[in-house]
Amino acid sequence: MAVSAKFWREQEARYNLVGSHCKNCDAFYFPPREICPKCRRKGKMERYKFKGTGKILTYTIVHRPNSVGRSPYILAIIELDEGTRMLSEVVCKPEEVSEGMKVRAVFRKLGEEGEEGIIYYGTKFVPA
Question: What is the three-class DSSP state of 80?
């Protein structure tokens, strides 16, 4: 099943590292949430664009090709400076990665639909 270009363009969080922030308890979330899991309906959620900087909490090196055919590659749990955590690829050599390493978000190719399909992009991280 082909994915339309419009589908990818309309995912604001994918292209801008946008999540949500609860003004009631000051918690941050990625991907965005409509209701705060801590405050429930008492929470006051707002759209929030993350700075895109953080550190690696833990990582693994994957030796099977990813969606763009690269191997090995690094998957890490990133803790953004605002406190939320997310899973993302880190673009660097496996011998360069370490826990606690500072990283910053970049916009990179994630994959494509077939040989002649659309190319879709998203957030990955590089050493800061």
Answer: strand
Distance CA 61, CA 74 (A): 5
Phi, psi of 9, rounded to the nearest 5 degrees: -65, -35
Q: Taking a C-beta distance cutoff of 8 angstroms, is the pair 103, 78 a contact?
A: yes
Range of the domain at 39: 18-51
Helix (H, G, I), strand (E, B) or coil at 9: helix
Number of domains in the chain: 2
Q: What is the pTM of this model?
A: 0.81
Q: Does one domain contain both 80 and 106?
A: yes
Residue 59 has pLDDT above 70, yes or no: yes
CA distance 93 to 91: 7
